[in-house]
Amino acid sequence: MTKGIYIVGTDTDVGKTVVSAGIMHVLRSKGYNATYFKAALSGALIDKNNNIVPEDTRLVSTLSNLKEDYQNTTAYIFKTAVSPHLASKIENIEINVEHIKEKFNSLKNKYDYIVAEGSGGICCPLIEKENKVYMLYHLIKELNIPVLLVSTTKVGSINHTLLTIEFIKKLGINIKGIIFNSFKNTFYEKDNINIIKKLTNIPIIATLPFIDTAPGVQKMEESLKQVSKKLFQAESLIEIMEKI
Ligand SMILES: Nc1ncnc2c1ncn2[C@@H]1O[C@H](COP(=O)(O)OP(=O)(O)OP(=O)(O)O)[C@@H](O)[C@H]1O
Ligand SMILES: [Mg+2]
């Protein structure tokens, strides 16, 4: 039996990868047989050997010592840093839902836990074909997997968080909790969290601090490992995940 969770965001760049890496680090260092999964990654880098490197997958795999081939955990990899539906057109690589599901199912056969990361926000188009648009939330519905929402605490986050939660609920997707990221401990961020708490009945799983990556400061990856160990409990994460 495999259990899973989809890490979705209120927007692109809110910290879905950082959160996924933290969660995967905690799970795998406790000995849980967990993998990462990303259906479509945009903005991959080219390394000095001319290999395409999906940066999200690289960070999560490095932090959690996951040895799986990037091609197995990342169904589609695009260089262009735009929405997958558009990157796929620009790079002439058609996205096929069955291919995404095949990759996901092969991971299910090999791992006990899947931590999947969304692309962009919950309303991210994956495929645009004729007059139809297949969105990230369609995939999440089809995979029948619950979500954890990553949000920030900056000004504007009340609006983004509440709208995303309402939309997820309306879709009938099970939302298991909120993770706030890049918290700088200001009075208005504390108030944002408080208001969101009052207006939703969704558990706040963790609040990750902003990690300073200025020169001379400890590397992001090391700090993230330490922060995650303090904030995430492997057993509680396993509890939140559902059979997929
Ligand atoms: N807590 C944090 N402290 C400092 N920097 C952070 C923190 N969380 C995220 N970042 C930085 O913000 C950027 C975006 O984070 P991340 O890549 O995790 O976002 P994302 O939601 O996964 O984006 P995408 O939609 O591209 O997948 C990265 O450069 C990351 O290093
Ligand atoms: Mg990411």
Automatic annotation (TrEMBL):
Chain positions recorded as substrate binding sites: S42
BP GO terms, sorted: biotin biosynthetic process
Location within or outside the cell: Cytoplasm
EC assignment: 6.3.3.3
Active-site positions on this chain: K38
Transmembrane segments: none
Class of this enzyme: ligase
Annotated family: Belongs to the dethiobiotin synthetase family.
Protein name as annotated: ATP-dependent dethiobiotin synthetase BioD
